[in-house]
Amino acid sequence: MMNIFPIQFVSGGQVIRGLGYGPHLGSPEAIRAILIHGYSSSKHALDPVATALAKAGYPVLSIDLPGHKLGSSGGALISFAMVVQAALDANSQLPSPCRPVYIGHSMGSAAALVAASRDPRAVGAASLGLGYPVTVMRPDPAVINYYLERWAWVDGASPIEVGLAMDHDIPEALTQLKGRPFLLVSGTFDQELPPFSAQKLFDMAHEPKTHKTVESDHSGVPLKAAPLVVEWLNQIRDSQNA
Q1: So what's the pLDDT on residue 150?
Q2: pLDDT given at position 121
Q3: What distance in Å separates the CA atoms of residue 43 and residue 36, rounded to the nearest whole number?
Q4: What are the pLDDT digits (tens) for 175-229?
Q5: How far is CA 78 from CA 65, 73, 108, 161, 226, in A?
Q6: Helix/strand/coil percentages in the chain, nearest 5
Q7: Cβ within 8 Å of residue 99, ≥6 positions away
Q8: How far apart are CA 192 and CA 62, in angstroms?
Q9: List of residues 6+ apart from 141 with CB closer than 8 A
Q10: Domain 4-241, CATH class in plain words
Q11: Is the CB of residue 34 less than 8 Å from the CB of residue 59?
């Protein structure tokens, strides 16, 4: 059982909407998960992770970014920086003793990493479907065409523009996150961010770090990753309570 409730806040002058998830009975865990979806996607892509965490007792806030789903969320995707800020502002909207963990998929996985690196209260970050560089497949004409199709679903910055910004921010974020847990979950059949790019990202990361692989393409990673995220977060919780 869990409680699910709408949340709305302002970040960068735009309205951000999302859903909060919480355990139905008992006291929630002292770690709150902030979930960020990928480019041209929506919070629904991370529903398996949100529900798994809530059922495990963790409060969750999963946001819908502006400019997605042909404007159904309103606003526009100004830049990758606004995604990071929306994640940071999401946590600040819910004052409580909870410390945040930032979790994302694809574009949101990079935003989760960067947000955690900039939030001194963050316990860590989990990136589902991320590699380095994010634009690793850009020279492939088929990939460029696919990117252009996805841009048609988003009001705002192009996937190439966003990808280049992620490539710029990821190395520093990995350095700043040093000493806090980092989870990377990659798909064995991911054609957007292939296994070799995930391994390069993991090699760049600092301890404590964990790399798990799932039998999935890029879009299917969150579903397969949900139990792994819960297991990883439980280990963090237990180490803090020890």
Answers
A1: 79
A2: 95
A3: 7
A4: 999 999 999 999 999 988 999 999 999 999 999 999 999 999 999 999 999 999 9
A5: 10, 14, 14, 10, 29
A6: 40, 25, 35
A7: 30, 31, 32, 121, 122, 123
A8: 23
A9: none
A10: alpha beta
A11: no
CB neighbour class for 208 (10 Å; exposed up to 12, middle 13-18, buried from 19): middle
Dist CA 80 CA 68 (whole Å): 13
Rounded to 10 degrees, what is the CA torsion of 227, 111, 73, 153? -90
* Pair 135, 170: CB distance under 8 Å: no
Identify the CA nearest to 39 among candidates 136, 144, 147: 147
Residue reference for tokens 């961010």: 193
Please give the order of strands across the beta sheet that includes 209-214.
2-11, 14-23, 60-64, 31-36, 99-105, 124-128, 182-187, 209-214
